[in-house]
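Sync notes, pocket subgroup
Present: LS, DG
LS reminded everyone that the earlier model was apo-only. Rerun requested with iron/sulfur cluster included. Inputs:
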Amino acid sequence: MSTAQAADVFTTIDNPADLTTDKIYCANCVHCKLIRSKTGSGSQYCLRVRCDAGMWKKKLGEEKIYKYFTVARRSPESCSFYEPMGDPREFIKELKKTLPIKDEVYTGSN
Ligand code: SF4
C-alpha cells in the first residue's frame, strides 16, 4: 500500500486501551492544522482540520478536509510525513476531553 493510500485508512479511537505510543495520530502531528470554514452569514464559522503535507485526499485527488470534532479518529497505518508533537497517548487522551462531540458553529472574527 502506498503512503497516500495508507493515509486514507483511518481507525476510530473509542477505547482508551487502544491508545498506544507507537500508533500514528494525525491530531498529534505538526502537519494537522486547525482551520476555520465560513458558514452561514456574517462572522459564523465551523472548525475543520487539514493535513498541510497534502496526505488527505478524496478519490479524485482533491484535498479532503475533516470536521474538527472527528480529528481524534485520524490514524493512518503509516505516514512518511508524520512529525509527532509529543507523547501520543497523553495528547489524544487530553484532546478527547476537550473535543466537541458534534460539528459546532462559532461566531466571531478572532
Ligand atoms: S502528515 Fe501524515 S500523520 Fe501528519 S497529519 Fe498528515 S496524514 Fe496525518
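DG: The pocket of iron/sulfur cluster is lined by residues 7, 24, 26, 29, 31-32, 51, 53, 55, 76, 79, 81-82 (CB under 6 Å).
LS: The radius of gyration is 14 Å.
Action: DG to write up.
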